[in-house]
Design goal:
The protein contains two helices and 28 strands. It is mainly beta. The strands form seven sheets. Strands 9-10-11-12-26-22-21-15 form an eight-stranded antiparallel β-sheet, with no helix packed on it. Strand 10 and strand 11 form a beta hairpin. The chain is globular, with a radius of gyration of 19 Å.
């Protein structure tokens, strides 16, 4: 078996990144851009399950930035992978006298890190960030153990203000080829799906604002993925989780990746598909990607809209912290999963 290792590397010309790996998985985080999990590789199959945008990594402080709105700026910097969205999710909006940018500040900042455990048999790294526009800090712990296909994640947000603060908090892992294909099947313990009440889409099969019983939307089975030549785009929200888990299995490649999380903190999961469908910026009908995003709040229209529409935002009192645990687990199967428990234990179909 290979010992757990950590190394700081440079991606592109200037971007600092951190790679953690053991014998079964490897993950790379973009320290200079949101601590995004940019790569998530199942080593026995040598496949990275995360999507990479066609426009690639954007170098910091190179060229001339001309975006005047936060949505364009965020999408220009979106290289794919997995982001934390905090303290906002979705559209920019004004809260307590300042604009909260598209998808929040945390995914656009430089993070610090320290190595807590490096024993060979285990590895634990702590990342941290103090936001500039909002009075929060974020801490994230990632842990790998020798011989384990599980990436353990613990994340904490803290309100440092002398007043109560409202926020949205979610994680945005996006999956792409070669892992994502028409051979993929989604399993989850969610009971229902609510389509977004504003999203139009170019090839959206869902009725706006309609509730469906997962996985069916009429005659359409949403647990299977269309081929790249079958355009689809949609935005919806998985609800009614029993314990909070999902998995995506590629039945042709014979493996999959599963997620489990604290459902009391993230009672929803945003369900996004952009399958070579949307014209114009930024996808230009050439992006084949899905995301299933554990989330505190719906809809994905920004904090002000959440407070007005659903009241599913989080409120942190002065000095209060909120914490969530997540686990990512790789497995081999050509059928899918029946269940993932909170420790990352699996029951195969």
């Amino acid at each position: 078996m290979m010992a757990c290792t950590v190394s700081e590397i440079i991606l592109g010309k200037t971007l600092r990144a951190l790679t953690l790996e053991n014998d079964l998985l490897s993950t790379t985080l973009l320290l200079d851009k949101g601590a995004d999990i940019y790569r998530l590789v199942y080593k026995p199959k040598a496949v990275d399950v995360l999507w990479k945008s066609p426009w690639g990594l954007k170098e910091a402080a190179r060229g001339f930035d001309t975006a005047v709105d936060s949505m364009t700026a965020w999408l220009e910097a979106y290289a794919g992978g997995w982001q934390v969205l905090f303290p906002n999710g979705g559209f920019a909006n004004t809260y307590k006298g300042v604009e909260l940018g598209y998808h929040g500040e945390a995914s656009m900042k430089v993070w610090d890190y320290e190595l807590l455990v490096d024993s060979g048999s285990a590895l634990e790294v702590k990342l941290r960030l103090r936001l500039s526009r909002s009075p929060y800090s974020i801490e994230r712990w990632l842990r790998l153990e020798d011989g384990s296909p599980i990436l353990q994640i613990r994340e904490r947000v803290t309100n440092h203000a002398g007043e109560a603060m409202d926020c949205m908090w979610s994680h945005h892992p996006a999956f792409g080829a070669p892992f994502l294909s028409e051979h993929c099947v989604i399993d989850t313990d969610a009971r229902s799906l609510l389509s977004d009440d504003q999203y139009e889409g170019a090839a959206n099969p869902l009725v706006k604002g309609k509730a469906y019983t997962w996985p069916l939307a009429g005659d359409l089975n949403l647990s299977t993925i269309p081929a790249p030549d079958q355009p689809r785009d949609l935005l919806a929200y998985l609800k009614g989780f029993e314990s909070g888990w999902y998995s995506i299995t590629n039945r042709s490649l014979g493996f999959g990746v599963g997620f489990t999380w604290d459902v009391d903190v993230f009672p929803y999961a945003w369900f996004w598909q952009e399958l070579n469908s949307s014209p114009g910026f930024p996808f230009y009908r050439c992006s084949y990607v899905i995301a299933i995003e554990p989330a505190s709040s719906i809809p994905g229209h920004g904090l002000s809209a959440v407070m007005a529409k659903t009241g599913t935002h989080l409120t942190l009192q002065p000095g209060e912290s909120r914490e969530v645990e997540m686990k990512v687990v790789f497995y081999e199967s050509r059928a899918g999963l029946e269940h993932i428990d909170e420790a990352g234990g699996l029951r195969l179909k």
